[in-house]
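Reading a protein record of the kind used here takes little practice once its layout is understood. The reader may check this reading against the record printed directly beneath this paragraph.
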Amino acid sequence: MATKKGTALDDLLLGTVGNDVLKGLSGDDVLKGFKGDDKLIGGEGDDKLVGGAGNDILNGGAGDDLLNGGGGSDTLNGGAGEDTLNGGGGNDILKGGAG
C-alpha cells in the first residue's frame, strides 16, 4: 500500500495499480486513485478527488470539493463546504456533510 502526502500548496497526487492512501492537506488539490481500493483525503481547500476502478473512500474535508467515485462501490464524504458528489458505477454511499 502506497501512502502519498501533499503540502500546504496546490498538489497533484496520483495513485498506483495497488491500494493507496492519498492525503492532500492544505491547498486546492487534485487526488486521483487508480485500480486499487483507495482512500483519498482532501483536507483544507477546494479539492478534486477522483476514485478509480476499485472500491474507494473519498473524504473531501473543508472547502468546496468535487468528488467523483469511479467504477467501484465507493463511499463519498463531502465534509464542510458546498460539495459536489458523483457516485459513478457501483453501489455507492454519498454523504453531503455540513455546508
Observations:
- The radius of gyration is 12 Å.
- The chain has one domain: 2-95.
- The chain has no helices and eleven strands.
